[in-house]
């Protein structure tokens, strides 16, 4: 299964010039990311991520993503960070560095394994990069 996901990711990445372009907004879902902050401010972390069949088809989200609360999605990311031995302070430091191309590359190289693990769990590209 993991090999299949890596093959799928590699195929998808061929359409982009860099890992940064491919991962796009993934970093916004990480601790201290904008998506998390917005959902806390607007008190939407407890809400179910519900989509109509038409919305789901239009946006391309997975069943896994659509059938959980936002806080569950963010907790899954945090759990994988722990599994991979990446501390919150490391993510925060790396996010400060992503103001240069070199910083972006370092950041995305560090979080790429998290992205792969999330794909292995059943999330798709649209769930993570939206």
What distinguishing features does this structure have?
130 residues; 66% helix; mainly alpha
Q: How does this model look, in words?
A:
With 130 residues, this protein is mainly α. The protein has one domain (2-44, 52-129). The chain is built from 9 helices and no strands. The protein has helices at 2-13, 19-23, 34-41, 53-59, 63-66, 70-83, 88-97, 101-121, 125-129. α1 (2-13) packs across α8 (101-121) and α7 (88-97) crosses α8. The longest helix has 21 residues, at 101-121. The mean pLDDT is 83.
List the helices and strands and how they pair.
Elements: H1 2-13, H2 19-23, H3 34-41, H4 53-59, H5 63-66, H6 70-83, H7 88-97, H8 101-121, H9 125-129
Helix pairs in contact: 1-8, 7-8
List the uncertain runs: none
Q: What percent of the residues sit in helical stretches (DSSP H or I)?
A: 55-70%
Average pLDDT rating = 83
**Taking Cα atoms only, what radius of gyration do you get, to the nearest Å?**
15 Å
Question: Can you tell me the overall shape?
Answer: globular
Topology, number of strands: 0
Helix/strand structural class: mainly alpha
Largest sheet: none
What is the number of domains?
Answer: 1
**What is the ordering of alpha helices and beta strands?**
HHHHHHHHH
Strand content: under 5%
* Distance from first to last alpha carbon: 24 Å
Can you count the helices?
A: 9
């Amino acid at each position: 299964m993991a090999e299949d996901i890596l093959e799928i990711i590699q195929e998808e990445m061929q359409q982009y010039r860099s890992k940064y372009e491919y991962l796009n907004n993934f970093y916004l879902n990480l601790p201290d990311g904008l998506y998390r902050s917005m959902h806390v401010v607007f008190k939407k972390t407890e809400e179910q991520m519900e989509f109509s069949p038409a919305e789901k088809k239009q946006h391309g989200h997975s069943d896994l993503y659509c059938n959980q609360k936002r806080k569950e999605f963010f907790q899954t990311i945090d759990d994988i960070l722990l599994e991979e031995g990446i501390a919150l302070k490391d993510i925060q430091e790396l996010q400060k560095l992503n103001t240069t191309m070199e910083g972006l590359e370092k950041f995305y190289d560090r979080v790429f394994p998290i992205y792969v693990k999330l794909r292995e769990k059943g999330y798709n590209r649209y769930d993570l990069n939206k």
